[in-house]
Amino acid sequence: MSQDDDAALLVAFQRGDEAAFRLLYERNARSMIAFCHRFVRDAARAEELAQDVFVKLYRMAGRYRPEARFKTFLYRVATNHCLNEVRRAEFTARASGPVGDDQAPDLDALPSSAADPHDEAVARSLEQAVLALLGSLPEKQRAAFVLCRFEGLSYDEIAETLETSVSAVKSLIHRATVSAAAALAPFGPGGGEEVRS
Fold first, then answer.
1. Prediction pTM value
2. Is residue 195 part of a domain?
């Protein structure tokens, strides 16, 4: 199924087809959990936020217009919800600490079961560095960066999602990319990242 199929499912739901919404949820739930996880760095909270996003989508389905891309509509709902979450004082206090080992790995984890232990340790270290980087970025930069680099949205789609201009999106992504390059330089060629056991 394509993105157009997702749009068709939401239109079918608007017309009263509850099964269409269940299918829409099944098709997008995993990626939405991963998206939320990149904002909150907490697996359990990411699942809760993803559920909240689909509840909001359910309630806001009547606002969707078929000429708009479903993905843009979904990520606007999700981005607004995640940004509201990270703005909450409770989350800010909780997230200010280091990313702990008790948190589940990102759903797009790098190591495979065939990787050797050293490679897995380096990959886990890199994943933690990426999560820490995302947590350190200003809200709008984080949203633009995640939508671009992890979700594959175009600048136009990100601008629509964040309700800003394409030039503002380019600036946000550029600044986030500069921060990412600096933060992740030790993992690049010749970076000499060592993982202590």
1. 0.71
2. no
